[in-house]
Amino acid sequence: MASIGIPANQAPKLNYLNNGHSLKSWLLTTDHKRIALLYLISVTVFFFLGGFFAMLIRLELLTPQGDLMQADTYNKVFTMHGMIMVFFFLIPVVPAVLGNFLVPLMIGAKDLAFPRINLLSWYLYITGGMIFLHCMLTGGVDTGWTFYTPYSTAGTNTNIVEAGLAIFLAGFSSIFTGLNFIVTIHRMRAPGLTWDRLPLFIWANYATSLVMILGTPVIAITIVLVAVERLFHLGIFDPGLGGDPLLFQHLFWFYSHPAVYIMILPSMGVISELIACFARKRVFGYKFVALSSVAIAVFGFLVWAHHMFVAGISLYAAMIFSFLSFSVGVPSAVKVFNWTATLYKGSISYATPMLYAFGFIGLFTIGGLTGLMLATIGIDVHVTDTYFVVAHFHYVMVGGVLMGYLGGLHFWWPKMTGRMYPEAWAKLSALLVFVGFNLTFFPQFILGYVGMPRRYWQYPPEFQALNVLSTAGASILAVGYLLPMIYFVWSLRYGKIAEANPWSAAGLEWKTTSPPPTFNFDETPVVTWEAYNYDEIPPWERRAPVAR
Amino acid sequence: MSNEHGTSVKTYLIIGATLLVLTVATTLIAFVNLGPFNPVVALTIATIKALLVILFFMHVKGASEKLTGVVVVSGFFFLAILLTLSLSDYLTRSWW
Amino acid sequence: MHDSQATTSQATVQVTTAEHEAHNPALVHQFADAEQQKNAASLGMWLFLVTEIMFFGGMFCAYLIYRLKYFNAFAAGSQSLAIKWGAINTAVLIASSVTVVLAIYAIRFGRKKLTVAFLVVTVLLGFVFLGIKSIEYTDKFREHHVPGANFHFTENFDDNGKQIPVNPNEVQLFFSLYFAMTGMHALHMIIGIGLMSTLAVLTWRGHYSAEYYTPLENAGLYWHLVDIIWIYLFPLLYLISRHT
Question: Subunits touching A (CB < 8 Å, at least 3 pairs)?
Answer without folding.
Answer: B, C
